[in-house]
Fold this protein.
Amino acid sequence: DGLRRIVFRFCASPIEIRGTERVEEIILGRNELVTEDGRAVARDTGERETLPAQLVVRAVGYRGVAIPGLPFDDAAGTIPHESGRVVGRANDYVAGWIKRGPSGVIGTNKKDSQDTVDTLMADLASTPPREVDPDHAEHLVLWLLERQPQLISDDHWQLIDTHERSAGEPHGRPRRKLARVADLLRIAHD
């Protein structure tokens, strides 16, 4: 009949994907939420559920990855910081999951980012002023272009935004997102 149904199974984690030539079923582990160090954490109960499946989509990459030159807490998958300021590094800041680990929602990220910006602004306010070359902005753009020739400026983003909105309009959608970097760069730079 072509109808689709989505069922959300909360407190469940994928344990195993089975199949011979293709995906045939997925084994889920039941979790219970427990409090550890003031945080809600999912703990496996040992209970299992087997579901028939034809497709598995991995939608969330939630583990932070080390960036060369920055400290990294491998156990937590985060960059060590103090109020968003990277420990032992001047002028380096973090926000989001790389700052606090995979937790929260969009609103959490917004508050988290604001806290980091507050730290950055406090650091900036305590930095002594210095002479700035009047052509600083132009030199900065040239410096960036030397290192990243496919830089996306605000003007480029406007081109991408216009393209996505135009592509969505015939389908009654607010936009049709470009998902491939190559397509984004083509629209921005052609």
Residues 62-130 form one domain.
